[in-house]
Write a structure and sequence with these properties.
about 525 residues, alpha/beta, Rossmann fold, Isoleucyl-tRNA Synthetase, Domain 1, 2 domains, six-stranded parallel sheet, four-stranded antiparallel sheet, binds 5'-O-[(L-methionyl)-sulphamoyl]adenosine
Amino acid sequence: MTSASTLSTFAMTTPLYYVNDVPHIGSAYTTIAVDVACRYHRLQGISSLCITGSDEHGQKIQRTAMEKGRSPQEHCDQIVESFASLWEVLDIRLDRFIRTTDPRHEAIVREFFQRCWDTGDIYLGQQKGWYCVSCEEYKEERDLLDDHYCVLHPNKQAEWRDEENYFFKLSAYQEKLEALYRDRPDFIQPDSRRNEVLSFVKQGLQDFSISRVNMDWGIPLPIDPKHTLYVWFDALLGYVTALLESDDEPTLENALAKWWPMNIHLIGKDILRFHAVYWPAMLMSAGVAVPDRVFGHGFLTKDGQKMGKSVGNTIDPFDLIKRYGSDAVRYYFMKEIELGRDGDFNEQRFINILNADLANDLGNLLKRTLTLSNKNCDRAIPPVSPDAIPDDHPLKSAGVSLSKTVQDCYERFAFSQACEPLLNLVRTANKYIDEQAPWSLYKKGEADAANVVLYSILESVRLAAYWLSPITPNLSTRIYRQLGYDVNFNGSHKAFPAFADHIQWGILPPKQPLGETDPVFQRLELPT
Ligand code: MSP
């Protein structure tokens, strides 16, 4: 696996979301994870590009717009606004937001199509089959429920189509794709998803249709404008268009110049085939390098049930953030759910976890320790030389070995695993303060011993806050400020504390004046 520390740039994408409706919690989930990965790379001083966008063409959007009595473009413009405001309230540090209706995107798509055409990988044929408009995909009859209802959209019936379409010769890439998966075992992650793709490809790849007739909400085919380009062929190329600088001519050469190959596409498991099979084959056809990795995450459920409008159990991300704050939402989804596995949202558990981890274990500990430091150390970090603390001190020994473990987890996008050792350190510190009772040590006149207790706890909280900063940037900023640093983890990464120093245990400057002590995380309560 590529070690991030050797990267000079890092670029990562969310899927480009359909704008048939306002964003749901699933879109928020993927975007948080991409933001966390980009923030982790920025902490190390690696220039990073956090990319998201909207997939605006196709029948699904066209029909939704019609139902609402709007033109497709008006409809898209309106929904895109709600995505943009969600990313803002969720503290997503976005670098690019690509819309597939951007005219520059059309130029990229046309050039890319031309390359595949010139390679001889596109031909005209007849497409007969069942089409699910919600998936924007033809389905095999055996993969549909009774009466041709879609497995993924059980209230939507697939529609019979028999029309002339242009096809992409996916079958010609069978061996090349197998070689890619074999030579680059990291290409599809996690392993369970890789295995799914391998067994799908082993059944034999079939060419897929890449144009539609009688559908004008899309990009016309350069060689035959009666046809519009299939929405997936168009949307995947959004990842390339997103890389154009604002003053670049929209050419493939320009788009691919700096950030390509993309480091990672993070997607949900339902769209793995498009990213791990169709996309690399399209790129090979156009003579473009394939991305480093495709990571398929799991699905979210609510109270153990599949979420959906028909069930009436969707979670509104705006509502959740309004009630509990963006750090809380970010923390729950990153800490509670292993990326790659399905995970559940339950509001009571959400509250319990946040109160236990952030309000009690971390927040209360910091408040107690700062109160004692304010009182006994002149509102400053206790005057203790970290070198004088023995290596077998329980917090020092845990703190010194922590960063390697946490960094390894971040590298593997194992954000939930990354949180574990951080919380363990904080829990050890809670036990330690109770056992050592520094307030009594001060009363007994043992100020040096008490100072060591406070210093080692504050330093442990600082280290935990540093490593949590990609996930909870606001909380980490508050902690750092109360410890006396002038730091903003939501500010410019150029002003971030130096990575090589801040991942060490024992860097809090003795006697550094403390900031104002306030609760860093308010206890949450279920609305009554
Ligand atoms: N437009 C395509 C992607 C094109 S990328 C070039 C698309 N859009 S989508 O809006 O339908 O889905 C976006 C993402 O949301 C997908 O990765 C999908 O897996 C994810 N999710 C949809 N429901 C979800 C959950 N319940 N839980 C987690 N993610 C979910 O597909």
